Automatic annotation (TrEMBL):
Coiled coil region boundaries: none
Domain of life where this protein originates: Bacteria
Name of the protein: YbaK/EbsC family protein
Pfam family, one: tRNA_edit
YbaK/aminoacyl-tRNA synthetase-associated domain sequence ranges: 27-146
Organism (species): Streptomyces camelliae
Length: 156
């Protein structure tokens, strides 16, 4: 664990989950992320969306997968037209940083949808940890059992 505690880490600590936060040079591009010492096949990205009913909705997918918006909308119980990408102002207000969004929501009312391919991953996954210079290593089953986590087929 890191000495720099993020609000989402409290959920992992309360759960008693094993995890590691790796500190490294900031990685903003896909090429920079692929150069990190973590297996790209285990990389997970977290996307942020907004809807009229949900001010913020997180979605975790394998790094190379694309979200199927129709599946996401159906899973969230909304129409596809209601789904919008969260803008930088919304992310900043929520304390999130593009390129470092963790697939864990410490905020009530903010769900995190996790794609079935992430949960089916063997071994740990590597995902955002609050900044482009930090990576969370955690078992996918841990992510799936946390509060506000929902698992569904979400990739194309």
């Amino acid at each position: 664990m890191s000495t720099h505690e993020e609000p989402w880490q409290a959920l992992l600590d309360t759960d008693g989950s094993a995890y590691t936060v790796h500190e490294h040079a900031a990685a903003h591009s896909v090429a920079e992320r692929k150069a990190l010492p973590f297996p790209w096949s285990q990389a997970v990205k977290t996307l942020a969306f907004t809807t009229p009913r949900l001010p913020l909705l997180l979605v975790a997918l394998r790094a190379d997968d694309r979200v199927d918006f129709a599946r996401l909308a159906a899973a969230a119980g909304i129409g596809r037209a209601q789904l919008r990408t969260a803008d930088t102002d919304l992310l900043t207000a929520a304390g999130l940083v593009p390129g470092g969004i963790p697939p864990i929501s410490p905020r009530p009312g903010v769900p995190c949808w996790i794609d079935t391919a992430v949960v089916a991953s063997r071994g740990p996954v590597f995902c955002g940890a609050g900044s482009a210079a930090r990576t969370l290593e955690v078992r996918p089953a841990v992510l799936a059992r946390l509060p506000r986590a929902h698992v569904a087929l979400l990739h194309k």
